[in-house]
What does this fold into?
Amino acid sequence: AQSVTQPDIHITVSEGASLELRCNYSYGATPYLFWYVQSPGQGLQLLLKYFSGDTLVQGIKGFEAEFKRSQSSFNLRKPSVHWSDAAEYFCAVASGGSYIPTFGRGTSLIVHP
Amino acid sequence: DVKVTQSSRYLVKRTGEKVFLECVQDMDHENMFWYRQDPGLGLRLIYFSYDVKMKEKGDIPEGYSVSREKKERFSLILESASTNQTSMYLCASTRPGLAGDTQETQYFGPGTRLLVL
It folds into this structure.
């Protein structure tokens, strides 16, 4: 069965600093990987996704993620964090057989001014 | 733009009440999903539906049922609400097909925060 681990429950960064949120997955074949963001009181919004091809994926709001098969990771990065990036971030994995993604437990990003 | 709407943003119900949570999508998506979200647990799948009148159990279906009478509408029903069903409920929809073929992703509604007293 597929699974996702987000090792960090909370991450605190200063505004303008770089950011990396970790995501590790467990799945035998090539997974389909997603990062979603949830602002307070809102639903989830897709930041980016990986299905195949270039392992460095660009998303919205200046985010990117890199798929590393050897490490079973799909970490989310942003070079300079803005206060508006404070939110909950979810990594998700889906298999090729059917579209039912499994979500990680989320990482809460706190941005200090 | 895909729009997924949920009938209520906030609900307060009493233990034992029957609760209906409604979700409507306007993009003719075949697949619809209900999740609950709890702090530290992420999103857990309750039920999903891949067609009208079709439903499949997710990871935590106990205490819930669903109804899909029309393609655009997917209802989550708590037959007898209990305090441990206090949570945020999220609805999502997507087109069918293998994720790799179609590169489909889920579109989420804003969520319903349910408090059961």
